[in-house]
Fold this protein.
Amino acid sequence: MLRVDRMEIIPVLGIGLAKEGDDVAELIMDGVKKSGINLEDGDVVVVAHSLVSKAEGKIVKLDEVTPSHHAIHLAKATGKDPRHVETVLRNAAKILRIGHGVIICETHHGFVCANAGVDASNSGGEAFLITLPDDPDESAHRIRSGLRRLAGVDVAVVITDSWGRPFRKGAVNVAIGCSGINPLLDLRGRKDLYGRVLRSKIICVADQIAAAAGLVMGEADEGTPAAVVKGLQYDKTNIPARTIIREEDEDLFR
Amino acid sequence: MLRVDRMEIIPVLGIGLAKEGDDVAELIMDGVKKSGINLEDGDVVVVAHSLVSKAEGKIVKLDEVTPSHHAIHLAKATGKDPRHVETVLRNAAKILRIGHGVIICETHHGFVCANAGVDASNSGGEAFLITLPDDPDESAHRIRSGLRRLAGVDVAVVITDSWGRPFRKGAVNVAIGCSGINPLLDLRGRKDLYGRVLRSKIICVADQIAAAAGLVMGEADEGTPAAVVKGLQYDKTNIPARTIIREEDEDLFR
């Protein structure tokens, strides 16, 4: 029989609703214990940005937003609340497309996503919006340090959001921040099954991890804001998720 | 302690190199046995298209391709072999972008991907190219029926390819064919953590499954063309992967 390395993806249950100032590593460790997970060196802890953003106070009260004329105009075009659009504009460095009820933006981080990552779901109710962390790589680094301090383990951390994309329906979980892992695996120079040298193959491991965890995390009422991946072989070089961003001059769709 | 549903992703090892006419379900069952996997009802079997394409004879001999003038012209612009470009053109319904050594095409299936899915990797050597199956959903259906016949199990099958995408570096595994599963999970109408009704959330479960399996499959010399996913809750409605394709008039980037 061949030696098979199984990978396990375990939802972290029992994490309560986060509030500003909460320590995300503590929230995760609380859930890890309740879920009976044995967190070990080399595991990957995947965290939904909503948990991180709430702990970091990245919640916007709609009542406190005064929409600009531009936001009011775009609100008509997209069918959104003008205060929601105003919050999108404040979180966008650039607008790429408008249509079908979404504003495709480049965020201040450089990410290209719908509505600059500003979301009404899981924000805390109709009166609130949730935005992306200011520096998701730094957030991942802090969570990783916290888990080392609290549990004595050296894990990788991947922070995710669920994004739509061109050409294909449905959102998939992607990595917006990471620590303790190289998000990109460069296979160039390695050989294929027949010995041919691969010339152009780079794999976005972090996005595949995010997507895998997305299968057990979910965003609806049964939502689970974290998951633990066990048994994955990955490059532990500490490289930020912002390196996943394709530079504009290498992008055929910007 | 909370009840935690773990998901497992198990690489299917020991699958030999496929050749035209091979029964993919037999190849997979051979690997499943060698890998000591207990294939059960409700498992998802993920298969790299390269295995399927080879069994279906979707291999092109470069020597037998005569490039058109258009192909020769595009070959200069992209630095590719003119016969490779000719094969891309034959597999493309439309060209969307050309640059950075790739030709972004809409395939005859409607998929938008680099080089119409025509690949020199794992094709069998420098003299060959591999193309996508003619109907990956039909291929998935055949593999699923084969596994039912050979092993008496009712599983879902997802056929994958590894694709680049706009805005983000690195390829991720995506679903190009499926059977026994609804590739899209529509959460609209369900409630978020705070009771707010979700208005726009559709998740591409099949792409998340493909990406998850991509973490154990790989395409380099240690490549593993199949994986088994256990413990995943999914909608068993039989809906083809071609429903993932976003219609052109709903696409902001075509």
